[in-house]
Fold:
Amino acid sequence: MQLPRAVALGALTTAVCAVAAVPASAAPRARQYTVVAKDGTPSRTFRAAVEAAGGRVQTYNRAVAVGSVRAPEGFAGRAVRTRTITAAAERHVVGSVPKATPRSASGRRIARQRLLERDQPLRDSLRGRPPAPNPPATGVEPLAPLQWDMASIGAGAQQSYRFDQGEGVRVGIIDTGVDGSHPDIAPNFDRALSRNFTTDDPLIDGPCAEDPDGSCSDPADVDEDGHGTHVAGTIAAPLNGTGIAGVAPQADIVNLRAGQDSGYFFAQPTVDALTYAADHGVDVVNMSFYVDPWLYNCRSNAADSPAARAQQRTTIVAVQRAVDYARSKGVLPVAALGNENTDIDAPTTDGTSPDYPPDAAYERTIDNGCLSVPTETDGVVGVSSTGPSGRKAYYSNWSRKETQVSAPGGDTRDFFGTDRYRLPQNGILAPYPESVARAVGDVDAAGAPTTPFVVRDTSGGTTSYYQYLQGTSMASPHAAGVAALVVAAQGRRDRRNGGVTLDPRITERSLERTATPTACPAGGVQTYPDPELDPALYTATCVGPPGANSFFGAGSVNALQAAQLRGR
Structure:
């Protein structure tokens, strides 16, 4: 098994130093650790401290003093007794793969979040039903009539595109990867800057030999999950006469892959993606995930072992450092608020963590001192999700503290009691890698979609695929796209990295200032009249006035208002 690395081969920068890994035979039952040193620790000092504690450095990110280390059991306790290392936590045992790993039809474990985002029960029930016919040509992008989400935020040919399209802005997609060959991604895909900061883990991603190139490290233009490609298209699919267009159709798409094929996101790749973005002129990053293995990271929870507490504290500190560094270099981080239908100002239980290794979760009582990372990391813009009716989507988390803006994320359970209820079209349509669509059976051998959740477009002589998804993962990229329009409209030339740049404090304020204030529902209570949604679980209380409430924050993002900021 190839050892996990924080940075793919050929992707090392001045911010990240790689050290040759120790052969597996030299350290049986070795474990992977994320290690945090004192700010400003030089590489040599870090290496000396790690080796003194019995470990070997794999990578070290000097920008934020966070490294990946391979060491025997017990390393963390020895490491924190040095004068250099402030936190260390085990990630997993290296080289241990169960004989029978749960697998999906694509050869990858489908993360639980994906089941909601794909609305898997509805998708399965409609399997074999022919897709609805594509809309008639209107002189704009062929599938634009299916993009209710863009119309709702003022993004379109007769709206924001007339004023600004995000030219010169770089948007980092910290996700499962981006399919750089997709016809509605390729024109804006920045192949030169894109990087993969992950290595496949056979425990969750399947044997490396199953990868198309036979390696454990995918190229920087590959997405074997589909999530990252969907996000990228929502932000910046171009105006090219094919499929759809994104919020900022002239923005640069930079793939900063930190997610495993299986949908897991770990701390070290997330940290490295953020610092790389900071050092390479990326203006906005989208983070539609939480850092595994903990949904909520508690510094000192009585139910957790000392090792579990150390792991959670390390995640909080490492990601906070990376976000601070990114913002100091002009990056605005934008993140999904989460799909647990929870007021994250008042969480009570967490029965899903740790989700790695598989089947390790246990029930914990938690409180607001436990943080969902990166959503609750200081300096990150939190985005809640709305459905096509404008209500808070049934699955979306909310928070008076963390919800800064809302955006369309889809809601297949919207419009209960009408013929629009439980339609795929209530989700968000965005690009779908053809290889993934074929692997999971969403497209047959002849290239025809097998479900109305998938749309094929053959405009201009090319064939491209799109899928409907729902989730705060889909809401966040709408906000990231509007942030890109803000940077394009108000930014200045970036002499160091090219393109444009803008102080993220200004970008954040303008994103909120241009949002459409949205009031709480009548009486402050949102109910969901759906027999499949238990009212005891799916009744949410909204507090605060329009422009500053727990459901919608400053309001729904507004691309038209943002695009008209130029010259103001």
Observations:
- The longest strand covers residues 85-93.
- The CA atoms of residues 289 and 336 lie 7 Å apart.
